[in-house]
């Protein structure tokens, strides 16, 4: 049996880049092949195809072409990455709300990573728990030229929060060179429960402006959506100072401002099997992919 893997090969900005996923694929195949009861009469192997374009971006054009090539050459039984031909698909991506529809093309898709619908459901539970029944505001970065990760993250909240009766959900979009003062004025006018989706450094600039204009004293609640804990990634993980600390003259103010921020991120597993598995993953990555991982929700190169 052949497993086809279609992932970005070199671009480590993607949590599911091949140097991170490859070690797990190798370990999984070895574990399956070591047990005669799992696939009696078969040996599980895998083939890899790169989904990056010439700019190193995970491409909606390159990935399907690679998938077709793998299908024609190897006739795989399942895919990791984009899938078709009524074959099972396991992916760490496909977070967007649209992938929730299992009635047609996504019926055989299994998501092993986060889904933005679950994030939206968490938002619903927060509003119910604290009786926030009037407004919610989504503030997110969207250049409309990349994979639009912050847009799709905010989408989960945008779709799920209105299931609360009478709750008004509004949004504020900003781009490179955004006017933070304008964004703060929008927040003042539109809502006190604020969900923010952007890069960690951008969040810090936004919160410094919020502190200047008096929004961090307790009247406004800011929730920073940081799925893989990028804002907490320092020399160790989690690094409690990392969200606000940059070693510049603004650190003291940033620390005060971040008292108004709650970071929503994944929780690392605590089951006893997790740490030994991570250690084996690191060894595989170092030996077979020349890639060094460190602590964190996404293994980073040092």
UniProtKB/TrEMBL annotation:
SUPFAM superfamilies assigned: Periplasmic binding protein-like I (SSF53822)
Gene3D superfamilies: 3.40.50.2300
GO BP terms in the entry: signal transduction
Keywords: Membrane, Transmembrane, Transmembrane helix
Key word Cytoplasm present: no
Compartments reported by the entry: Membrane
Transmembrane is among the record's keywords: yes
Pfam families: ANF_receptor (PF01094)
GO cellular component: membrane
Molecular function GO labels: natriuretic peptide receptor activity; peptide hormone binding
Domain Receptor ligand binding region, residue spans: 21-288
Record InterPro entries: ANF_lig-bd_rcpt, ANP_Clearance_Receptor, Peripla_BP_I
Main location: membrane
PANTHER family membership: GUANYLATE CYCLASE (PTHR44755:SF5), NATRIURETIC PEPTIDE RECEPTOR 3-RELATED (PTHR44755)
Protein name per its UniProtKB record: ANPRA protein
Organism: Toxostoma redivivum (California thrasher)
